[in-house]
Design brief:
The protein is mainly α and about 170 residues long. The chain contains 7 helices and no strands. The protein folds into 3 domains: about 50 residues, no CATH class; about 55 residues, no CATH class; about 40 residues.
C-alpha cells in the first residue's frame, strides 16, 4: 500500500477534476481539457496513477471467511432452540386460551346448564314459600268467613246510606 506522505500532489486547479475524471463523472469537454493537461504535467499524471492504485483498495469488499458463516449459523440455531425452550413452559399453561378453545368451552357450559335445568325442573323449591297444604290452611278460614265479610260490606253500605239519608233530611 502507498504511504500517505508519498502521495503526489496535483495542480490545485486540477485536483478535483482528476478525481472526477477517474470516476468518469466529467463532461466530454472536461475530459479533453484534462487529457491535454496530463500530457504536459508529470505531477498530475503521477497523481492520477496513484488514484488508480489507492482508490480500488478503499472499496475492496470485506467478505468474511467461510468459518465465520459456519459459526454464525450454529450460534443462530442454538439461540433459536433456547428461545423455543423458554417459551414452551408458559405456552402449555395458557394453551386453553387459544381462539378455538373459548367458544368450545362456552358451548360446553351452555349445554351443561341446559341439561341440568331440564332434568331438575321439578325438584327446585324455594325455602321461603310454604308447602301447598299450609297455604290452603291459611286460605280456608277466610273462605269460611266469607259470609261474615259480605255482611260487613253490607253494613258499611247501610251506614253510608244512612249518612246520606240524614244529610238529605237535614237539608229538606
Amino acid at each position: 500500500m502507498t504511504d500517505m506522505s508519498s502521495i503526489q500532489k496535483a495542480c490545485k486547479n486540477y485536483e478535483q477534476d482528476l478525481v472526477l475524471h477517474y470516476y468518469g463523472e466529467s463532461s466530454p469537454e472536461e475530459r479533453e481539457r484534462i487529457q491535454a493537461h496530463l500530457q504536459g504535467c508529470p505531477s498530475c499524471s503521477r497523481f492520477l496513477d496513484e488514484l488508480r492504485t489507492v482508490l480500488p483498495l478503499t472499496v475492496k469488499a470485506d467478505e468474511p471467511p467461510e468459518s465465520f458463516w459456519e459459526s454464525y449459523s450454529r450460534e443462530l440455531r442454538q439461540r433459536l432452540m433456547t428461545a423455543r425452550e423458554k417459551n414452551a413452559w408458559w405456552e402449555g399453561i395458557f394453551s386453553f386460551l387459544r381462539p378455538w378453545a373459548v367458544p368450545t368451552l362456552a358451548t360446553a357450559v351452555v349445554l351443561i346448564l341446559a341439561v341440568t335445568l331440564t332434568l331438575t325442573r321439578g325438584t327446585w323449591h324455594t325455602r321461603d314459600l310454604p308447602p301447598k297444604e299450609e297455604a290452603l290452611l291459611e286460605v280456608l278460614p277466610i273462605a269460611e268467613n266469607l259470609e261474615f265479610y259480605t255482611s260487613m260490606d253490607f253494613l258499611d253500605s247501610l251506614d253510608l246510606l244512612e249518612d246520606m239519608g240524614g244529610a238529605d233530611s237535614g237539608s229538606a
